Hints:
By secondary structure, the protein is of the alpha/beta class. The protein is 43% helix and 13% strand. It has one domain: 3-Layer(aba) Sandwich (Rossmann fold).
Amino acid sequence: MEAGVHNGGMIRRAALILLSLGASLFARQEASSKPLRVLFIGNSYTYYNNLPRLLEVVAESQKGGPRIETGASLSGGKNLMWHWEKGEALELIRKGGWDFVVLQEHSTLGKVPAQGAEPEINDPATYFEYAAKFHEEIVKAGARTVLYASWARSGFPEHQRRLDDAFIRFALKSGAGIVPAGLAWTVARIEVPAIVLHSPDRSHPTMAGSYLNALVFYQSLTGRRASDPPSVISGPKQPGDARQVTLVNLPWSDANALNQIAQRVVAQEPLRPVR
């Protein structure tokens, strides 16, 4: 376990933050021949190990559940302000046909640390401004806004509370939903510390980290538990990339442990979109 993680206190603090949201959040999706269409807007935390494809494969493996089709506007190291100004993501939203649009802010809320400097969590004002702009367009397009609640960098577990606070504040104000990936990472690092979630750069997800994210997304978006999802998944290296690689290759025991954590986090904590 990383130094500085105070197990009981951290979990209690997280629970208090999450329980403040009150009632149940994501509406359950009934089994249907019509797929759920999910648009991801973000950066490398989404395209590492091709999270959109992992989500599609998990959905494909579940009998009776909805299929999931994804689209993406992704660029490494960028924040929502950059995506708004570039315009590609906005164009995709306005084309319509999406059930959910996922907003993934930069991992430090937009403040990129200088080379060799310790990361800091930025003031969330710019995040709130551009998340609100996107949210307005998403609602106009008939979709639901989903906030990808990402994780603290390795060695800085105290950052998780500030990140979650920003996500929760925006969700309460806007009615947007939250996929609690960061909370799932906190629980996994405490309960199964042998499963490494951070890459050597201490920021990006390993295969296991991306797999956990995909499971949290699946269960949050569909309201269904994933039953024995595949632990080996292949596909394009990144969304839109023709190169086929192994995206995930985990021992069944690790995959099962992560799935159990995802189930408990999504089922027990009300960090999901309001009905």
